[in-house]
Specification:
heterodimer; A: 368 residues; 7-stranded mixed β-sheet; 41% helix; B: 367 residues; alpha/beta; 6-stranded antiparallel beta barrel; 5-stranded parallel β-sheet
Chain lengths: 368, 367
């Protein structure tokens, strides 16, 4: 069995698992003032400081959330509450749909930047969308389907030049731990890094516009309520720190694996999306024109390989990917596979993927 | 065999899949998403295509320990079943969408996709019996009525054609009653054992066929006339009426003899619905087209004494049939009442299905 769906969720890393289990043994609500509470709080703040240090921000800028989706929603709602929000055509629904929802709620505009055929934000188009009405921008650090890295630095420069009052948020759910990210606000998800599901962080400067999405105790900076998940925070911090400490070696290894899959796809008359652009080291997004998406998925599954189709899944039914459609690849938008790799991927896994692709792609091209 | 089990989320297909697993086949479950806009929840007894039905199918597959996928066959369904449904009604005929679904989707699109993916057969929860008969020329696959006559679905399956009979499995063919299927379902720990049976047309969620047709084809009011041509009412569109229909006519003028009147003819060119006494509905001779003959060992080019069925769960009437090219001619020993063009005419010899055709026209006993 080959697990190649790390971008969907990663197995727990040993470091995160041990940190989680150890922290889980502590009793006490981190908001309580007694000895137990203070001890729990201390663990949580250690985690916050670790994350701040890794992300090169201050601890006060770290907000713990239930995951990437909540972090995205917090940032996007905050921006949309102040004025026009700009997102891109390839955002995850946690940003795209949140921007629609909150722009509508606050009576502000939501502008969407197109992308090039390489899956990169069209910077000229972006420049044209910037004006004094823009309260903020939310553009992902790297795309979750294609792995294509977005020019966040250049986006920040354009904002500085054209709309200096606007803030910049980036959804770094896939990118965190792989590349350095330079935005004011950043969303991170724990389970993509090997921490448990249900853990996440929004990094947001003290003056970043935020509004509470749910009423409650306001435990995190008065905008995020709910009992603090101490063990989750500890595990996330451990996973992130571990990843960043080891990332060069791991990235080099996975890039080689990624490119082997890309080469294999090319040999099968397929192609790698955004091949000329910088891409995350662990995502191989390959398209096989003419291949039936359901047959690709079934074939890989039967071959004991867990990967994703490139398409969105709505109640179990595959729909063409909005990312590939935005890239102008509508014809192929369903015939993609995403292999996403991680710390436990081995060369045997890549051998198995190559061998399965040879059989499955030809079978899937025979299905009308 | 590698078997693709079509799982609607209902009792029958779940038990059929379970039996295929027990028989030692390598089974994969597939739920077909047939609607473009799937409802979140099931609505009463109608349909099988809500997200909730897909969930039920998935849970049954989980229990059986088989892989499970949802396949989107909504394009096929729309292009064949729904478009045929609309164009047939628009032409004044009364189609059977379940027959078209079996013809174009379940035992065509699904089977072809499955075979292209390396599967050998499609398994469904239909009530029909497949028999493999050894002959000097090899195995002959015969389609027979199910042991459970009340549930027998051979009528809607005859259309699949003889070339696919060897690539389908109907594991419920020998179960005597639906209660036995439910009991087996419960004994296997499958969660759908108490789920109600589905009836009616799955893509018309509220059961209002006339409203569906009016919505899709547009209202086109016109006269309802009696057999002498006198107007006795008004209709919303002649396409929405079926030969033999009595209810929902809203006739303002009573019949001279005070007896009930039925739709005897739907005339699309003049957008007229004709009503008359029930005697005018008597049918003794049927001309069918699009003939499908399942029995390679029986030559239908000269008259054959057979049983003839023209409705799902309808009575079998003795008579004779003859096939000439694409056309099937049937003569009945006794009259049947009201048969609309577009329905299926299925021919039986004992329990065996010999063939079927789509009704093109009918003639009464006086002809």
């Amino acid at each position: 069995m080959t697990y190649a769906d790390f971008a969907a969720t990663s197995p727990l890393t040993e470091v995160a698992k041990q940190a989680w289990l150890t922290a889980q043994d502590h009793i006490g609500n981190a908001s309580a003032t007694h000895t137990y509470g203070r001890a729990a709080r201390s663990l949580l703040e250690d985690a916050r400081e670790t994350i701040a240090s890794v992300m090169k921000v201050e601890p006060a800028e770290v907000i713990f959330t239930s995951g990437g989706t909540e972090a995205d929603n917090l940032a996007v709602a905050g921006i949309a509450s102040r004025g026009t929000i700009i997102t891109s055509a390839i955002e995850h629904p946690a940003v795209r749909d949140a921007a629609e929802l909150h722009a509508h709620r606050y009576g502000h505009q939501h502008r969407v930047v197109p992308v090039t055929s390489d899956g990169v934000i069209d910077l000229d188009a972006f420049r044209d969308l910037l004006d004094a009405q823009v309260a903020g921008v939310s553009i992902m650090a790297a795309n979750n389907e294609t792995g294509v890295i977005q020019p966040v630095d250049q986006i920040a420069d354009l904002i500085q030049a054209q709309a200096p009052r606007a803030v910049l948020h980036t959804d770094a759910v896939q990118a965190a731990g792989w590349i350095d990210i330079d935005a004011e606000a950043v969303s991170i998800s724990g389970h993509k890094l090997g921490a448990p599901v249900g853990t996440g962080v929004l990094i947001a400067p003290r003056d970043f516009p935020l509004v509470a999405l749910e009423a409650g105790g306001g435990q995190e900076r008065k905008v995020r309520s709910g009992t603090l998940n101490v063990a989750g925070a500890v595990a996330l911090a451990a996973a992130l720190a571990d990843r960043v400490a080891n990332r060069e070696a791991l990235a080099t290894q996975l890039r080689e694996y990624r490119d082997r899959i890309g080469q294999c796809a090319a040999n099968l008359d397929g192609y790698v999306t955004g091949i000329n652009k910088d891409r995350l080291p662990h995502i191989a997004h390959v398209v096989f024109p003419g291949a039936d998406p359901e047959a690709l998925l079934l074939g890989m599954d039967m071959a004991q390989i867990a990967c994703s189709t490139g398409s969105a899944c709505s109640a179990g039914v595959h729909r063409p990917s909005h990312v590939l459609e935005a890239m102008g690849l509508a014809d192929d938008a369903s015939s993609a596979l995403r292999f996403s790799l991680g710390f436990s991927t081995t060369t045997n896994d890549i051998d198995a993927i190559e061998s399965a692709l040879g059989r499955v792609v030809s079978m899937a091209r025979g299905v009308r | 065999m590698r078997v693709l089990a079509a799982m609607s989320g209902g009792v029958d297909s779940a038990v059929a899949a379970a039996r295929a697993v027990d028989a030692g086949h390598d089974v994969v479950g597939v739920h077909m998403a047939l609607s473009k806009s799937r409802a979140e929840h099931r609505n009463g007894n109608r349909g099988c295509c809500s997200v909730e039905d897909g969930y039920d199918a998935r849970r049954a597959a989980d229990k059986l320990g088989i892989p499970f996928y949802i396949w989107d066959l909504s394009d096929d369904f729309e292009d064949t079943v729904i478009s045929d449904f609309l164009s047939e009604y628009a032409a004044g005929r009364t189609p059977n969408p379940c027959v078209r679904c079996n013809e174009h989707v379940k035992f065509a699109a699904l089977l072809e996709r499955g075979m292209a993916m390396g599967f050998d057969a499609v398994c469904t929860g239909h009530y029909a019996d497949l028999r493999d008969i050894e002959t000097p020329d090899g195995i002959r696959h015969e389609l027979h009525r199910a042991a459970n006559m009340a549930k027998d679905q051979s009528y809607v399956l005859a259309v699949m054609g003889k070339q696919v009979l060897g690539n389908v499995l109907f594991p419920l063919g020998d179960v005597p009653t639906k209660d036995k299927v439910r009991a087996e379902c419960a004994a296997r720990g499958l969660n759908v054992s108490l789920k109600p049976d589905s009836y009616d047309i799955c893509f018309i969620a509220d059961g209002d066929t006339r409203g569906f047709l009016e919505n899709k084809l547009g209202a086109n009011p016109g006269p309802i006339v009696d057999q002498d041509g006198h107007q006795v009412g008004e209709h919303v569109g002649a396409f929405a009426y079926t030969v033999g229909q009595r209810r929902g006519l809203g006739l303002g003028v009573p019949a001279a003899d005070g007896k009930p009147r039925f739709v005897t003819r739907v005339d699309i060119p003049s957008n007229t619905v004709v009503v008359g006494p029930p005697e005018l509905l008597d049918v003794r001779r049927i001309i069918g087209n699009k003939t499908v003959w399942l029995a390679p060992d029986i030559d239908p080019s000269s008259w054959l004494d057979v049983g003839i069925q023209v409705r799902a769960h309808g009575r079998e009437i003795p008579g004779r049939v003859k096939v000439e090219g694409d056309q099937m001619i049937a003569e009945l020993d006794e009259s049947l009442r009201a048969l609309a063009a577009g329905q299926s005419l299925v021919v039986y010899l004992g329990t065996r299905v010999l063939g079927q055709a789509t009704v093109e026209s009918t003639e009464g006993p006086s002809c």
